[in-house]
What we know:
It is a single chain. By secondary structure, the chain is an alpha/beta fold. It has helices spanning about 20-35, 40-55, 60-70, 75-85, 90-100, 100-110, 115-125, 150-155, 165-175, 200-210, 240-255, 280-290, 300-310, 315, 335-350, 370-375, 385-395, 410-415; strands spanning about 185-190, 195-200, 220-225, 230-235, 260-265, 270, 320-325, 350-355, 380. Strands 6-5-4-7-8-9 form a six-stranded mixed beta sheet. α2 runs antiparallel to α3 and α5 (about 90-100) packs across α6. The chain is elongated. It starts with 18 loop residues before the first helix and ends with a helix.
Amino acid sequence: MTGAGTDEGVGKRPPEDGRLADNIVHFARALRKAGLRIGPAAVADAIEAVQAIGIGDRAEFHTALHCTLVTRHEDQAIFDEAFRLFWRSRDLVQKMIAMMSPVVRREAEKERKKAGERRIADALFAAPEDRRPPREEPDVEIDARFTASVSEVLRRMDFAQMSASELRRAKRAIVGLTLPMDAVRTRRFQPSTGRSKVDPRATMRRAMRTGGALILPRYREARMVHPPLVVLADISGSMSQYTRVFLHFLHALTDRRRRVHTFLFGTRLTNVTRQMRHRDPDEAVEECARAVEDWSGGTRIGETLKAFNRLWSRRVLGQGAVVLLITDGLEREDIGTLEAEIDRLHRSCRRLVWLNPLLRFEGFEARARGVLAMLPHVDELRAVHNLEAIEDLVAALSGESGGRADPRRFLAAQT
């Protein structure tokens, strides 16, 4: 990669030898490998934009590339991380030293990784398969009975730290999950082959066919249906990566069962139930991203819950609905509004499950004001950061929750 990872061309007029243009092409290839949808026309526009503005400073160069190469809100974090690594050689060298030096690695492990950093590293540093030199591997027998399998590692890996290939494998695994068996008994009946309860109406209707000469009893049983599942998912900057992967799980639910309602919120509430009915899961998620105007923006949990309770609760929360609330609970506005609206939502549904990615940290404590306001009004508090957490959620919806997700354990720690 000629000149990749250097500051050449940033802060001055583009050189005439075309090296900056080559670097932009390599940068676009790295972004495409990391998962962004970039075509040749977008790369040509990026080069023309850089030549047109003359690159007065680094911020203008970043803006020119961002406007031409990024077309989706959810790709903004990936682009920013790729730009930081590709066009800053000093930071790039420090990261390479941290990966190779055992002394520096202990210090680097304390730093919190950014979302998409793993995907960008794979896209920038992984050599193509046809350019990698052949390696002669010695014949070594390894006892793998006590080692973690690849699937086990993938189940416990954080979604925000997955590479592009690992995300694809995770999405395929999510589609293959066993759907929750959360059927509930209704007041309506259906014909039954078992002799549980006699159906007088069906019995008399059958006897009328023979003129009453032969009366054979007919039986019925209570009808079992899946209750409505309502999802309120936060798509703010800190939640967009987790919500995007979780939408693939919701797409599988929407495709295989009825009455699944999906709402996305940041600073406003958006109903994306119709978009989630698209046959292709990737197209469904893309339709959701296009329908939402504030993806990866700010968050107003209290106001969006107020809008849901006022406009949608009576339409979708009937017949024992279960609500999945996906957010980190970091409210920056009026806590009184949040507490009142989450209490109203809790009283309007049969079960309220809060999915919080902050539970991936072992030392998580309920100290934020928003978290403290929401905890008393939820039935369960669960993680949502990896495949294992989604599998636990499926088991919980099927009635195998136990007491592991009791939110009162965090309230007890505050008293």
